[in-house]
Amino acid sequence: PTAPDEPSFQQRIDAGIKIEPRDWMPEGYRKTLVRQISQHAHSEIVGQLPEGNWITRAPTLRRKSILLAKVQDEAGHGLYLYSAAETLGAAREDLLTDLHSGRAKYSSIFNYPTLSWADIGAIGWLVDGSAIINQIPLCRCSYGPYARAMVRVCKEEAFHQRQGFDIMLTLCRGTPEQRSMAQDALDRWWWPSVMMHGPRDEDSVNSAQSMQWKIKLHSNDELRQKFIDQTVPQAEFLGLTIPDPGLKWNAERQHYDYGEPNWQEFWNVIKGGGPCNRERLRARVKAYEDGAWVRAAALAHAEKRAKRQP
Ligand code: FAQ
């Protein structure tokens, strides 16, 4: 048991001791975690929709079963993460209400449409690639249940990233039409993937406090740079061109320099104005309403069983 005061709490964080659900924690720490973990959970759940759009149209049975498994993994990640948020006293029902009303945020990236099969490759390659870069450090974050959930999630994301790259590789080794589908998908998903890492550090209102609490271990710009440095050689291997004329190796920094994303587009998507925001929320609300009878039946069953107990 720890003394309920902020200095000793911060000392424990600095010493690398994990915070567990029953430990004392500052209200701000709890709130920040509920915000980030629930946004993360919503992202996994809404994140099923763009790819779900292609399950019935996957080009082969093998691709279809891989995609089905990936989308199911994302549902699982969402459920882990809602459970992690519940350990902080959040009620799942409230989190879902906030998602369905448009009050809660989820990742901007899932508000873009999947127009061709190549988009499924690009999502796995770029979006899951970004997710891994963001989530590997979270395995070491200060809150125990979140850190532990991330371990398994990251293993699955690594598989997702490879399946995406494998789709891109197949297309890039295919016909000229297939190569141009792959290039078109990269052209459309590149900038949203770059922006997915969040606003620039100077505009990231939560970073300083979250990093002090080790809820975040790296800043948005650090992770964005890592994503770009890792992805450029992969694009070269595929023979694809990244749609950024400002992209250039900087020998002095030992990193790629890159152009400025369209931050106005980013904020607009976050505020609900992206190409698919309304469609995504509508799909989630409908799924929730369609599932009402399952929840009612489970509740009735549990009540009946409780009555039968001696
Ligand atoms: N979209 O002060 P910061 C996946 C908001 S991976 C929407 O920098 P923070 C796997 C931010 O919430 C995707 N909103 O915020 C998958 C804040 O607003 P608030 C999910 C964004 O929290 C792959 C405001 O802007 N991963 O799902 C975004 O310190 C394929 C100011 O920003 C996670 O959630 C954005 N991109 O840093 C599934 C990882 N960026 O809340 C299916 C955990 C920022 O104050 C298919 N989360 N905002 O009202 C994090 O690491 C952090 O929360 C960041 C944002 C880095 C996302």
UniProtKB/TrEMBL annotation:
Entry EC number(s): 1.14.13.149
Entry GO MF terms: phenylacetyl-CoA 1,2-epoxidase activity
Pfam family, one: PaaA_PaaC
SUPFAM superfamilies given in the database record: Ferritin-like (SSF47240)
Keyword NAD part of the UniProt annotation: no
Alphabetical UniProt keywords: Oxidoreductase
PANTHER family for the chain: 1,2-PHENYLACETYL-COA EPOXIDASE, SUBUNIT A, PHENYLACETIC ACID DEGRADATION PROTEIN PAA
Name used for this protein in its record: 1,2-phenylacetyl-CoA epoxidase subunit A
